[in-house]
Amino acid sequence: MSKNISFENLLNKNVKEINYKDLVSLSNLNDDEASNFFEYISKCSLTEILEIMNKLVQINQQESYLEYESIFKKFLSYPNDIIKISCMKGLSESEDRKLINIFVEIMLEGESLELRNQAAKVLIGFSFRAFEKKLINSDSTLIFDSLFRIISNVNEPISLRMNALESISIFNHESIDEYILYAWNSEDFYSKRSSIVSMGLSGDIKWTNYVIKDLSHEEPKIRCEASKSLGIIGTENELFHLEKLLEDEDLNVQLSTITSIQNIGGDKALNLLEKSLLSPEPLVVEQSKLSIQIIKEEQNLDLVVTPEMAQNLYGSSDIQPGIDLEGYDPLEINFDEINTTFSESNDFGTGITEEAEELGLDRGDPFDIDLLPEDLFDYDEDN
Fold first, then answer.
1. Which residues have C-beta within 8 Å of that of residue 300, sequence separation ≥ 6?
2. Is 310 part of a structural domain of the chain?
């Protein structure tokens, strides 16, 4: 039994009596404690379980020192898609590579579209880790191949393909460019929005002109995403394109633009944000003040911390990322992969892993692509 007295007391409570303090006591449970909680809460109604799980997800996002990963993992096996979706949201920042196969299988074979969509979304975290060379080749390839299988299948629903497109765009592989462009040219709103998000997530300046064009799109949500993406791939040279959005008719566009200007940074960015302090909108003024403070703090840090100092403070592993070996069996690791560059160690599409083969991903070379249809995303959602 748990040594956590608060947790033991919780197990003796009626679920309707559970409060915030009780939920805090569920943080950092070990596997046995998570199993006890699973048995306890499984006796409740679906509505009660979902309410508790959603609260845990919310707390997990708001309080970084609290961690409910063991609970979310346990409830991934609960026989209800809504509960599973909530758990995947809670695991969106998990670094446990054992979840990769689970998420991939759900994305490819999940019973509901909502479940598959969420799996495609949460794979973006592992895409980042793959791009940063924190995963071994077999994991990185499985992620890429699985996402590519979705975006290249015209029979899959648009929403699933677009969620997969955003997650795979992190790899910034040339084979993805055609799909981003077809989505960008599509008249489907969801496709258009996802293409702009993907351009930003790729981190590649080659998309700059496409993103700039959509800063003047008639749809506020498109302008908002274009602003965010330009904040990722843009430089000081593009700041004047963002300046006009500081007075956009849509408040969300204004706020996202302030953050984008902050992300680009520099003296020009400070000048633009100082003008925003005169805005009649309180939220704009508040966000501008915060962004100005962040830029100034970063500038001061740059003045006092040299690259040599950073290496001494944080170690070479933070400057030259390497594979995170936690969670791997030594037999899984090819130590020749370590300290190689991403392009050298991730030749996607030239082989197939055992995991991929088990999931039916024996696709040969996914980059040996035939001519694409006129509009990849012009398909009925019900297909």
1. none
2. no
Domain span at residue 99? Answer: 95-202+327-383
The enclosing H or E element of 282 equals helix 282-304
User: Measuring CA to CA, which residue among 260, 267, 259 is closest to residue 302?
Assistant: 267
Residues in the chain, pLDDT under 70 = 1-13, 15, 302-383
367 three-class SS: coil
- Choose among 93, 184, 104: nearest CA to 146: 104
Same domain, yes or no, for 157 and 234? Answer: no
- Name the strand (E) or helix (H) holding 244: none
The verdict on residue 360 lying in a domain is yes
Q: What is the rounded CA–CA span in Å between residue 210 and residue 217?
A: 11
Q: Which residue has the tokens 């991939």?
A: 104
Domains of the chain: total? 3
> What 3-state class would DSSP assign to 128?
helix
pTM of the model: 0.79
User: What pLDDT score does 25 carry?
Assistant: 83
> Tokens 């370590």 correspond to what residue?
338
Query: Which residue, 267, 270, 261, 194, is CA-closest to 234?
Result: 261
CA 366/CA 246 separation, integer angstroms:
43
Closest to 227 (Cα-Cα) out of 121, 248, 361, 159: 248
What string of DSSP letters covers 74-111? HHTTSS-HHHHHHHHHHTTT---THHHHHHHHHHHH-S
List C-alpha distances in Å: 94 to 59, 101, 108: 15, 13, 20
| Burial class of residue 257, CB neighbours in 10 A (0-12, 13-18, 19+) | buried
Each residue's pLDDT tens digit, 229-242: 999 999 999 999 99
2 and 69 share one domain: yes
Check if the beta carbon of residue 27 is closer than 8 Å to that of residue 66.
yes
* Rounded Cα–Cα distance for residues 89 and 290 (Å): 28
> What's the pLDDT tens digit per position in 285-311?
999 999 999 999 988 876 666 666 665
**pLDDT value for 303:** 67
